Amino acid sequence: MASVIASPGVGLRHYPPVFLAPILAASSQSSASFSTSSRMAQGRKRTRDNNPNRGVSALRRTGLRRPLEMMKYPLPVPVLNPEKRSKVAVDENHGLWGFFRDKKALNTPEEHAAFGRPWVVEELRHKSWEDLHSLWWACCKERNILATQGYEQKRLKAGYGDAEILDRDKAVRRTMKAIKHTLTERYYAFEEARRVAVNDPEVNLDAEPGTQAYAPIYSDETALEPDYHVRSGETAVASAG
If DSSP codes are grouped into helix, strand and coil, which group holds residue 188? Predict the structure, then answer.
């Protein structure tokens, strides 16, 4: 309840209750502003940072704060007339020609569809290591050509050849899979032969190049054993007659 005090010559004055004195005293003080910086930093003058791109904006079309490097020579003018352009010498045997078939970017639909079947494992088992190596890199080259043709067809929006390229690439990948299968069979066969040769006393795995690694061991009994069976057979036949 507010108290009423009479002052001489002034009249009555209304004062708040005594229990509200702490709240009124706190509100009379200045409140701090909501900021993450300290009070000392707020009073300082804001300095410019060392960012050279500060104030550069593409939206507001504000340019750079430093001059660009310029040359005293004029810029070259493009030649629009094809007849006046300089001829560029191209090597006929350049390696990049390997990404094109017959030095053409695209093939006709008939050329896309003209391809054979993939190689099978039964046929590759009769090939030498050099033949398999050459066939593998021929498949890699063919896949590069197909990838180049597919990219050019999408870029030019040719509208044909996508299915043929996929079928041809599938056939090439089947051939490469058959080559891996053949080489895997030869690897296991070699490992099995090496395991047998380690325990064979007639095989010398440490033989020098040009020397005979297989040295068969013959004993007198082993050399005479076939003749003994022959003579025994002749004797048996003579006694039976």
Answer: helix
